[in-house]
């Protein structure tokens, strides 16, 4: 991390070296969800990187564009209007503060609960009915993609039943969260060789995260050797992250990917992420179908509720799973 005496605008925001074109993730797995090879390709990408780009997912461009333009409209409102949709915790509008433990980033966001039982009432926070309708339409579609991807994961892992993983996000009481992030351009650092941290490095605690962004890059993932690589943006694709809980369910076969966002000095980034988590009481332990003869769990037993509580008491960059290793 670069530390500079910066402009007051970026006070308290950690700085990072600005990405250059040579940092691009040249080996990024791209999975065509409509192809018969998708299950194997997904399992392979999750084992190597915990991350892949998903194309031919079937969500209409209109559904994605409508949400993006409603989000842009919301984030363009006067600050006082946006603040009326806050605070961010447990759900609502937030700015610069991420979580409750002192993390800061160059962004504003909406954090929303997804109530699987009543999707139409899911996104009660944003004041505008058009925004709510766009959110509900998009979330319904992206959830279906998450389920198809988790079914493909089970198939790729060679385990039955096909819903061994996906049932955890479709179950009654599953804990699903949706987040819309807006990273304004950080003009103060233009030309200085460093950039504001948009969203600091972390892994996602849930099972799966499905991200879509506008055409502004900024997302980076850490490869298993620790090298940070930039993910070129693609507004037509989804980017899928393996979360900590899926790493545990697969006894470490799938890797929970460390990632972060670097703010651009010229362009806004808008991203929307669906986080699929299980019900609070769901036990998070390696699936028996995946344990070989005599293979032991690498982790202590815990429920999603216990893990979530520990995660929300931690700082963004903490290695949360380390406390649950045997
Ligand atoms: C600093 C934090 C923000 C976070 C809760 C936490 O204490 C640690 C995990 C963070 C994270 C990362 C993925 C998602 O964006 C998120 C909503 C989640 O479930 O875990 C955030 C949490 C947050 O922003 O509140
Ligand atoms: O906004 C992004 O592109 C990624 C944000 C992220 O990793 C998160 O919200 O957990
Ligand atoms: Fe994340």
TrEMBL record:
It holds the Pfam family DIOX_N. It comes from the Eukaryota. GO terms for biological process: gibberellin catabolic process; response to light stimulus. One of its GO terms (molecular function) is metal ion binding. Keywords: Dioxygenase, Iron, Metal-binding, Oxidoreductase. InterPro entries: DIOX_N, IPNS-like_FE2OG_OXY, IPNS-like_sf, Iron_ascorbate_oxido_reductase, Oxoglu/Fe-dep_dioxygenase_dom. Its EC number is 1.14.11.13. Its cofactor is L-ascorbate; Fe cation. Residues 173-278 form the Fe2OG dioxygenase domain. It catalyses: gibberellin A1 + 2-oxoglutarate + O2 = gibberellin A8 + succinate + CO2. Gene3D superfamilies: B-lactam Antibiotic, Isopenicillin N Synthase, Chain. Belongs to the iron/ascorbate-dependent oxidoreductase family. GA2OX subfamily. This is gibberellin 2beta-dioxygenase. The lineage of its organism: Eukaryota, Viridiplantae, Streptophyta, Embryophyta, Tracheophyta. The gene is LOC123062094.
């Amino acid at each position: 991390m670069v530390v500079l005496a910066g402009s007051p605008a970026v006070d308290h925001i950690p700085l990072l070296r600005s990405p250059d074109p040579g940092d691009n993730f040249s080996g990024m797995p791209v999975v065509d969800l409509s192809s018969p090879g998708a299950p194997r390709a997904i399992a392979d990408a999750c084992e190597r990187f915990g991350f892949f780009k998903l194309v031919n997912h079937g969500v209409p461009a209109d559904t994605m564009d409508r949400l993006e333009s409603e989000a842009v409209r919301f984030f363009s409102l006067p600050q006082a209007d946006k603040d009326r949709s806050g605070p961010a915790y447990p759900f609502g509008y937030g700015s610069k503060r991420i979580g409750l433990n002192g993390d800061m980033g160059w962004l504003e966001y909406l954090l929303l609960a997804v109530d699987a039982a009543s999707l139409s009432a899911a996104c009660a926070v944003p004041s505008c009915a058009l925004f709510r309708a766009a959110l509900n339409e998009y979330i319904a579609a992206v959830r279906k993609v998450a389920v198809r991807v988790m079914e493909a994961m089970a198939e790729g892992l060679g385990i039955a039943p096909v819903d061994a993983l996906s049932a955890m996000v479709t179950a009654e009481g599953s804990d699903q969260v949706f987040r819309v992030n807006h990273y304004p351009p950080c003009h103060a650092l233009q030309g200085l060789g460093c950039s504001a941290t948009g969203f600091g490095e972390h892994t996602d605690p849930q099972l799966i995260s499905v991200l879509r962004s506008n055409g502004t890059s900024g997302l980076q993932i850490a490869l298993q050797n620790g090298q940070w690589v930039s993910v070129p943006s693609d507004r037509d694709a989804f980017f899928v992250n393996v979360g900590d809980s899926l790493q545990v369910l697969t006894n470490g076969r799938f890797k929970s990917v460390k990632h972060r966002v670097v703010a651009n000095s010229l362009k806004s980034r808008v991203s929307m992420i669906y986080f699929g988590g299980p019900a609070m009481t769901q036990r998070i332990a390696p699936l028996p179908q995946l344990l070989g003869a005599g293979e032991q769990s690498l982790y202590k037993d815990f429920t999603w509720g216990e893990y979530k509580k520990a995660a929300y008491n931690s700082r963004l960059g903490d290695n949360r799973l380390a406390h649950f290793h045997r």
